[in-house]
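REQUEST FORM: STRUCTURE PREDICTION
Request ID: SP-0412
Submitted by: Lab K.M.
Chain count: 1
Length (residues): 540
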Amino acid sequence: MLAEPSYITESKLRCKRAGMSPQFVPDPATRLPEEERLSRLARYSKVHAQLQTFSTKLLKSMHHVPLAIALTDERGYVLDIHGDLSVRKELAQCGFAAGIPLTEADMGTNAVSLSLDQQQPIQLLGADHYREALQTMASYSVPFTYAEPHAMNGALAMVTPLEHHSPYLLALLANLVESIGKELELGVKRQQLERFNSMMINTVRNGIILTDKEGRIKELNPFMEKIVCKSREQLMEQSVFELEPFGHLVEYVLQTGQEVADREIVFHDEMMQTTVCLFDALPVYDDKRKSITGAYLQFRDITDRHELERQILLSEKFSAIGKLAAGLAHEIRNPLTSVIGFVYLMKQKYKNSSEMRYLDIIDQELMTLNKLVSQFVLMAKPSNPQIRTCNLNSLIVDTVELMKSQAILKSITLETLLPQEALEVKVDAQQIKQVFVNLIQNAIEAMRNQGVIRVVLDRKADHAVIRIIDEGEGIPDEHLKQIVTPFFTTKDEGLGLGLSISYRMIESHKGKIDISSKPGVGTTFTVQLPIEGERKGVNV
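STATUS: Completed
RESULT:
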C-alpha cells in the first residue's frame, strides 16, 4: 500500500492541533450570501459556460458513474455545483454546497484546499479526508490559472462514491481544465479577429456586402450604406438581386461560381452626386470548397481618380486648343477684320440696292465667325481675373434677377436659398457672374415649360459651394462625360463653348465645377470657390 503523501499528513495534523473533530459537521460563518455568490460567478462566467458545455458531455458519456462537479474561486469558495443528484444530496449533508469555503480551516483536509495550496492536481480517497463523513467519497481537484479573457484563478473539483474511483478520473478532470483554457484562448482570438475584421470593414473606404447562397444580404459596412443611399436596416436580409445596377451580376456569380472583377459602376445619391466604383464579386465556398455558401461583394471607390483622369483629359484638350488658338487667332482675325470693314463700306455704297440683303447675310455670318473666334480664344485661355472681394449672396441675387425674364417666358420659377450671413470670396465678379448666367441659361433651356430652378449657396469647410438645380430631362451618362468638351452640344443652335468657358473661368479661380444628372429627374451643377483668406495661387 502506498504511503500517504506528506501534504495530506501535514494537513491532518494541522486540523488535529486546531482541535477539529473528525465527526464535526461544519457550518462556516463565512458562507457567501447568494447575491455575493452570483456576483462572483458572473466574474467566472466564461469559465462557467465552458465548464457546463464540457461537463455535460462528460457526465453523459459516463452516465454509469455518479459524479458531481464543482467550480471554486481562488479562495476555495464553491461558486456552482452540478451533476448526479444523489451525490449532491450526500455532499449537502456533509455541509458541501454552493457558497461554502473549501478551506482547511472550515472543512478540514479536502482536495480543493490542497490543490490550491500545492498548485497541482490532488485526489483524496476515503480515509485521506479528515472528516469521517467524506471518507466514503473519492475527491479530485485541479487548480487553474487562466490569463484570458482576464486573470482568473480557481479550481475544478469532482466527487464520486469511493467504489466508483478510477485513476482516470483525475486525468479527465485535468483534461477538462486544459480544454476550458484552450477554448477561452480561442474565444479571445476569435473576438480579436472579429474586432479586427469589424475595424477593417467599417473603416475601409470600400463598400462591402456579404450574402448567403440565396442572395440575401447578411452583412455590410457603413460605406456601402452611403453608396446606395439606404440604411443598414433597409438592406439587411434584402435580396441583393433587387439592387441595381449590380444585382444581376451577383446572381450570375452565385449561379455559376465565376468571379466578376473590375466592373465600373456609377451610383447617384439623392443630391445627384456621382460615386464611381470598381465592382468585384466573388463566390464564397464551404470549408471543403464543394458548394457555394454566399458571395462577397466589394465596391472600390475610384471617384477621385475618375475625376482626376477627366480633368487631366480636359486639360490636355484645352492645352491643345490653346496652342491652336494662339497660332490661328492672329491669322484669322487680321483678314476677318479687313473683310468686315470692306463689307461695311459696300453696305454704305449699296444700301439702297436690291443686293443689300446679301450684304446683310454676309455681315451676320462674319459677326458669328468673329464671335466664334473670340469665344475660342477665351475658352482656351481666359483673361486674368480681376480679383476683388465679392459678396456672393448679392452676386447670386443680381444674377437671378437678370435671368428672371427668360425664366418667366417658359413659366419657370427661379428660387434662391442663401445663408443669412454674407459669404465673401475674392473673385472676378464679372467672370463669376458670367458663369452663373451660363449655368442658369443651360438649366432654363433644359426644362420644358413650368418647373423650378433652385440656386443654393452654402459653405463647406474652406469653400463656398453654389448648386444650380433644375428639374429638366437630365443628361444621359454618355453625354455627361463630354459636356464640358469644347464644341460638344446637343442643341440645334449653339457653339458648344459655354460650359467649356465656364469651366476654364472657375479653374482660373482655383475652384471647380461638378456636374451630376439623372435622366427624368434633373441636373445639378456644383461650383466650388475658395473662401477669402483660404485661396492660394491667385494674385490679389
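NOTES: The chain has 16 helices and 17 strands.
Reviewed by: T.R.
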